[in-house]
Protein: Oxidative stress survival Svf1-like protein
Amino acid sequence: MFSSFFSTAPPVDPHAPNFHPVSAGRLSSELFGELEAKDTEWACPGGFAVETQIFYNFLEDGTSVLLQVIHSSVGVWYPTIQITSKIYNPNTGEKIWKSVNVANFVTPPPGLDKRSSKADQFSITHKSNPGSNEPEKYVVNANLGDDLQCSFEVSRPASVPGFKVGKGPKGGFSYFGPDLEKPDGYVVHRFWPRTALKGMIIHKGKAIEAKGPGMFVHAIQGMRPDTVAARWNFAHFQSDAHNGVSAIQMEFTTTDAYGKKGAGSGFVTTSVGSLVLGGKLAAVTSETRYPGEAQADDAEVISRAVHLRTAKDVDTGYDAPTELAFKWAAPALGGEGRVDASLQLDVGPPTAYKGLVEKVDVLAEIPYVIKTMVNYVAGTKPFVYQWFNPGTLHVTGPDSLIPGLSQGVDIEGRIYNEATFIS
Structure:
C-alpha cells in the first residue's frame, strides 16, 4: 500500500490520451481481422468485468429471439452467471422474458475447449467442421423455467467469417488509461455477422419452430460499466434477399473521464460495424469521433449511429431518439471497390413508439452485488431502449456482390436496435 510513495515511475501527464479506440492507427485495409479459435473462448476475467455471449435471431414469422449468457465479476466476490432470453412477436405483441442465475457454471466442459460452456440450466457447445459450407456452429440447449426451453443450432456460413477490428491478439480492443501496457480497462467485441438458426423453442408446452437469420457476438467490458461509456447504440439488420444481407453496428461514447487529452476530454464515440452482401462478408467498418471534430461525409471509412431527432421521455428523463440513421462505408473486402450503406428509422415519439420492445431499467436487471459497486449519477437511471421494426437498407457497391448494386439497391428486412443511456 505504500509503494506509491516510493515509486520511481515517471509522473503521468494529466493531458495525455487516456482512451485508445479500436480504430486508432489502423488503415482501412487493416480493419478486418478474421477470428481465431481463442477469440471466442471464455476468458472469465477477474477484477470488475462483464463477459457475454449473445445470440440474436429473427424467425421466419418475424419474431425476434435473443439468448444471452452473462459472466459478471466483482473484485473478490464469486462471479455471477446469468442466462437470459427475450422473445418478442410483433404480430401478436407477445413478449417472453426470462433471466436465471445459473448454478455450477463450467468452461470448458469435459472434452471441449473454452468456446463451450455449461451449467445446470444450459449447455452451449461449439462444434467445428472445417472445409464445409458451415465450418462452425453452436449447439444450444437451455431450460429457463417450466414454461420456456430452447434447443437449437446457430451456424456460421463459410462465406461469412467471424471478425474483429484488427488482426492478432489485440484486435478488437479499445483501451482505457494512459498506459497501453497496463490499461485501466478495456472493451472488446468479436462477431459472427450472419448466422443461421435451426431448432425449436418450447413455450408453455407449445413448440415454436426456430429458423431464421441472425448474428452472434462475444464481448467483454473489462472495467465498471459506469466508467466504460455514457451512451451505447446498437443496430442489427437482417434480410434473406440477395442470398443473405446483414448490417450490424456497435457504438459507444466514453464518459468525460476518458478522451484524447485525459480526464475532461471525453465523450469520444467509437463504432464497429460490418456489411454482409450477397451472402458474403463485404466490409468491416470502424470510426472514432472526438468532441468538436467534424466527420467528413465522404470519409473513406464511415461507421455511425446518428440520433436525427430526439424528444424528452418523461418515463426516463432522457432525450430519446425518435428518428435514427445508421451509416456504413468502407473499401470492399477483396479490393472490389467501395461499399456504402445507410438505414433510416422512424421510431415515433416516446408517447407512441413504433416497434418498442421494451425500455429496460438496467438497475432492476443487473445482479445486486454489481448494483452496489456501480456509482451512477445521482437522480439518473440507466435505461436501454429496444426496438424491432421493418427497415430498408440502401446500398451501393460493386455489381460483383449483388447485380445492379452500382446503381443502388434498396433491401427490405428487419432491424433490431438499441439506444442505451448510462448517465
